[in-house]
């Protein structure tokens, strides 16, 4: 990482270095497997332990952590869902993340399209201010944002949270889709115009469908980002009726210190993690392709 | 995804021959107004204006509840540099921004290298067989909300009922039988760092795997023919060739480490023993929303933003000074 820069000349110079290579190949593979298995265990074991603990009673959770539960207490899940309000938070999250995702994809695609394919004064300025919005920490904006929402009477409401999610996911969406729309062939646009399609129709019937791979990648990123969002709801959505999952989990965990239903706490964690994890395992190939496409850029 | 109507590739079959010269029709004007105006209004109202207001508020003594606010110049900033707790938070953030990215990148690169060139085989460099499983599992933490990662590990670290102490004392390390990892000022920070690293490694491993697969196989071939071993190949070939990805990763990770709010709120909401895990965003949050000192807290936000920008700049400069030659190879 630091100083070793290899260019071709170096490689040639290395040719006299003593050959190591092939003989110990199998040994290397075994070592590699062992190292990777160790890391995989480190990832899986805490999750597995969480799953097992979610079936325990509180006494069992506070007892020896290495034992299995005496019986599978599914009531932990019921308690988490209803008593602890996870069900309600789950529904709120689906509403907020779902609406914000749809809105930000539409607005982001529209904005990126105009910025990428039309020249007008101020185009660059808008693009760069989006880029700046991407890099500044949200913490800098959070206090004034609180009062912006308050003045619009959107504080502690789901629509307020949705519009804020949209606004802060917008720069990334525009930035990412910009390159996609830029890369679309100009002839297609010309052809649509010649065929008499207006700008609206050209966008929705021709250009947007062509940008579908990019849209899918961005949508996945945005979904995970919004699903994980913590700061915005904690600061701007303090009415416990409107809690989303992430902040509901945090408040449940901090209450659990006193009221203590640890089985339900673990069950709540499983409820939060399981759906996304299952979707991920089903779509893992596509997701990893999207992630690398986005990250390598 | 959602809004796409039926695709009409190529603009559909109908041919009306009139060629448009882009006059200012209603279609065109309404299009620009909606397509550009709508997103911009949202962006300006909810993103740009708060950022700009923050700069102003940081120069006032606004407490939010008092009717007015007085312009106090740089008083807030002066106060910040005498605020021991905030300075402690700054130090913690800087520590995080140094340790977390380096450890994450080294680990992720190592694992990615094992997957891509750890395969057994003579002659050509080959990926490890059956490595798909590792990739899938390592990526798990990326799809788990950060707050949940923090909560899970907070339970793992809990003395008595947590699994870590149980496992450690099971394998003979009895001094850890009831050890409070997050409650001891010596281990609270390293333990928190570990949790963040646990959450990040898989994502960057997948990223680096893709980057390494993107390298021309001939380069590896040549190295192998020239007798370079795997370790040597990794250090002298892989790392320099994916240097840009490493730089991007370092910046992302550094920015995440300068935030760290979610993890720290889950692991030690109060800032940890002797504020050992307190970070700037936590201090900002309590100053603003618990104490109501809005002017002072936005000044903290400005410092946080400045540190973030400085960090990104530093990474660029260091990378430019120490390398850049690799571009010749890459092309």
Please provide a written account of the structure.
The complex is a heterodimer of chains A (297) and B (331). Chain A starts with 7 loop residues before the first helix and ends with a helix. Chain A folds into two domains: 29-72; 76-294, MetI-like fold (Orthogonal Bundle). In chain A, helix 5 (86-117) runs parallel beside helix 8, helix 6 packs across helix 8 and helix 13 (245-259) packs antiparallel against helix 14. Residues 1-22 of chain A have low confidence and may be disordered. Chain A has 297 residues and is mostly helical. The longest helix of chain A is centred in the last third of the chain and has 35 residues, at 262-296. In chain A, 76% of the residues lie in helices and 0% in strands. Chain B has 331 residues and is mostly helical. Chain B folds into two domains: 26-75, no CATH class; 77-321, MetI-like (MetI-like fold), CATH 1.10.3720.10. In chain B, 65% of the residues lie in helices and 0% in strands. Chain B has helices at residues 26-57, 75-80, 84-117, 132-139, 146-157, 163-170, 188-213, 217-225, 230-241, 243-259, 261-267, 280-289, 294-322, 326-330. In chain B, helix 3 packs parallel to helix 7 (188-213), helix 5 (146-157) packs parallel to helix 11 (261-267) and helix 10 (243-259) runs antiparallel to helix 13 (294-322).
CATH architecture of the largest domain in chain B: Orthogonal Bundle
Uncertain segments of chain B are 1-21, 325-331
CATH topology of the largest domain in chain A: MetI-like fold
Strand content of chain B: under 5%
Overall pLDDT level of chain B? 84
Q: Give the largest interface.
A: A-B, 137 and 148 residues
């Amino acid at each position: 990482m630091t100083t070793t820069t290899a260019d071709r000349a170096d490689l040639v110079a290395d040719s006299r270095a003593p050959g190591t290579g092939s003989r110990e190949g199998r040994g290397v593979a075994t070592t590699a497997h062992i190292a990777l298995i160790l890391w995989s265990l480190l990832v899986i074991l805490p999750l597995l332990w969480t799953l097992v603990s979610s079936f325990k009673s509180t006494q069992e959770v506070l007892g020896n952590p290495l034992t299995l539960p005496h019986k599978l207490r599914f009531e932990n899940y019921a308690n988490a869902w209803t008593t602890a309000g996870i069900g309600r938070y789950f529904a709120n999250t689906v509403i907020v993340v779902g609406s914000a995702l749809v809105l930000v994809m539409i607005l982001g695609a529209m904005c990126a399209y105009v910025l990428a394919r039309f020249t007008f004064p101020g185009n660059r300025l808008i693009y760069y201010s989006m880029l700046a919005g991407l890099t500044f920490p949200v913490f800098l904006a959070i206090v004034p944002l609180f009062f912006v929402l308050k003045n619009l009477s959107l504080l502690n409401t789901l629509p307020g949270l949705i519009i804020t999610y949209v606004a802060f996911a917008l720069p990334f969406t525009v930035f990412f889709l910009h390159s996609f729309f830029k890369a679309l062939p100009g002839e297609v646009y010309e052809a649509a115009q010649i065929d008499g399609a207006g700008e609206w129709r050209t966008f929705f019937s021709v250009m947007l469908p062509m940008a579908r791979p990019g849209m899918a990648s961005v949508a996945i990123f945005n979904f995970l980002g919004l699903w994980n969002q913590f700061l915005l709801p904690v600061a701007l959505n303090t009415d416990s009726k409107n809690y989303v999952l992430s902040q509901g989990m945090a408040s449940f965990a901090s209450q659990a210190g006193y009221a203590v239903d640890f089985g339900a706490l673990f069950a709540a964690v499983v409820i939060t993690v399981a759906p996304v994890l299952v979707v991920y395992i089903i779509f893992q190939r596509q997701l990893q392709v999207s992630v690398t496409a986005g990250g390598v850029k | 995804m959602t809004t796409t109507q039926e695709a009409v590739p190529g603009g559909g079959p109908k041919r009306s021959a009139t060629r448009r010269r882009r006059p200012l029709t209603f279609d065109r004007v309404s299009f620009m107004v909606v397509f550009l105006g709508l997103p911009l209004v949202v962006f300006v109202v909810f993103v740009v204006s708060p950022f700009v207001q923050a700069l102003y508020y940081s120069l006032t003594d606004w407490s939010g509840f008092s009717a007015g606010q007085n312009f106090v110049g740089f008083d807030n900033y002066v106060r910040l540099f005498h605020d021991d707790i905030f300075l402690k938070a700054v130090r913690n953030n800087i520590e995080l921004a140094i340790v977390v990215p380096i450890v994450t990148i080294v680990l992720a690169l190592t694992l990615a290298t094992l997957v891509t060139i750890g395969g057994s085989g003579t002659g050509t460099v080959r990926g490890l067989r059956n490595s798909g499983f590792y990739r899938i599992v390592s990526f798990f933490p990326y799809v788990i909300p950060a707050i949940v990662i923090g909560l899970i590990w907070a339970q793992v670290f809990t003395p008595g009922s947590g699994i870590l102490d149980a496992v450690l004392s099971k394998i003979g390390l009895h001094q850890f039988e009831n050890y409070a990892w997050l409650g001891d000022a010596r281990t609270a920070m390293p333990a928190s760092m570990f949790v963040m690293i646990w959450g990040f490694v898989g994502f960057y491993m997948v990223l680096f795997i893709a980057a390494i697969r993107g390298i021309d196989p001939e380069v590896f071939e040549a190295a192998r023919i020239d007798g370079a071993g795997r370790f040597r190949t990794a250090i002298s070939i892989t790392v320099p060739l994916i240097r840009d990805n490493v730089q991007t990763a370092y910046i992302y990770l550094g920015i995440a480490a300068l935030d760290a709010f979610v993890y720290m709120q889950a692991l030690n909401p109060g800032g940890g023993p002797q504020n050992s895990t307190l970070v700037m965003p936590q201090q900002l949050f309590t100053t603003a929303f618990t104490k109501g000192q809005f002017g002072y807290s936005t000044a903290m936000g400005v410092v946080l933003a400045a540190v973030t920008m400085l960090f990104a700049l530093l990474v660029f400069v260091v990378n430019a000074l120490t390398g850049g030659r690799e571009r010749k190879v890459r092309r």
